[in-house]
Amino acid sequence: MPITLNKKLPAVDILKNENIFVMDDARARGQDIRPIKVLILNLMPTKEATETQLLRYLSNTPLQVKLDFLYMTSHQPKNTKPEHLETFYKTFADIKADYFDGLIITGAPVETLPFEAVDYWQELCQIFDWARRHVYSTLHLCWGAQAGLYYRYGVDKALMDHKLSGIYSQDVVEHFSPLMRGFDDSFLSPHSRHTQVTEADVRAKTNLQILAKGEEVGLSILASRDLREVYSFGHLEYDRDTLKREYQRDMRAHKGPSLPVNYFPQGQPSQQPPLRWSLAASTFFTNWLNYAVYQETPYRLEDLEKTGSLYGYL
């Protein structure tokens, strides 16, 4: 089954060229089923690229998924045209009375700032609070994961000695979690961050399960036992060239970046990077949609008001 999108979204043509089935709103309304409703809070500066990356993996499921995009009104994006936001995105005011099966909160290039110094922090806290009773399962990515842990549990991030950038191995440590079904004992994932959350803090301040971790990356994937909270510190959604574009961006800005680890063949930036994490990414996002969202969410989303207390931090 397809994902349902506004047919004018730029990602639609890209996905169709990749032979990924997408369905426009008009055709979807003719199907007598309730689609899974997923909201994506896109905090990344290159929003169109992130849209395509996430949609590529969310489409790889037998479920019909109805997607909405959300942006922060308290922040003025510099790399996305206002017309794009006006056409394809909603604000918190637009959706705050609605309910969703799933919510994805992306990363953001603000990790070296204290959380409270981020210009949209208060608005984001409103969304965290709202999601308790309006969303069944929330998937947090990279900085979004760090922000969620800080807001809910007081787990702060720590600055690392150097930027973690590259393709790294991590091991599955909780094989019986539905989110890890279909994974090998170890898998590769892109990481791109300056900060980390320590295992000691997570164990001391939360009851979250550690599902995967790695020697170089530290914690990789965490989740609550009921899968209503999922935290991934890597970027499984990244496409082949994302780290390359980030490296080139930092070179142009004269930041003197190190080469992404285990990424360019023979360490040569002129070479095309191999794609080695697509299977893990597809498995992860499909498992989240199936086991954390579809299998557990109530048919009547309004009933989420009755289940909000299931969150461990309430």
Automatic annotation (TrEMBL):
Residues carrying the site annotation Important for substrate specificity: 192
The protein's name: Homoserine O-acetyltransferase
Top EC category: transferase
Protein's UniProt keywords contain Electron transport: no
Catalysed reaction, written as an equation: L-homoserine + acetyl-CoA = O-acetyl-L-homoserine + CoA
Entry-linked PANTHER family: HOMOSERINE O-SUCCINYLTRANSFERASE
GO molecular function: homoserine O-acetyltransferase activity; homoserine O-succinyltransferase activity
Pathways involved: Amino-acid biosynthesis; L-methionine biosynthesis via de novo pathway; O-acetyl-L-homoserine from L-homoserine: step 1/1
CDD domains: GATase1_HTS
Similarity annotation: Belongs to the MetA family.
Natural source organism: Streptococcus criceti HS-6
This protein's UniProt keywords: Acyltransferase, Amino-acid biosynthesis, Cytoplasm, Methionine biosynthesis, Transferase
Keyword 4Fe-4S on entry: no
Entry's localization field: Cytoplasm
BP terms from Gene Ontology: L-methionine biosynthetic process from homoserine via O-succinyl-L-homoserine and cystathionine
Superkingdom, natural source: Bacteria
Gene: metAA
Function: Transfers an acetyl group from acetyl-CoA to L-homoserine, forming acetyl-L-homoserine.
Annotated InterPro entries: Class_I_gatase-like, HST_MetA, MetA_family
Site label Important for acyl-CoA specificity, positions: 111
Active site (UniProt): 142, 235, 237
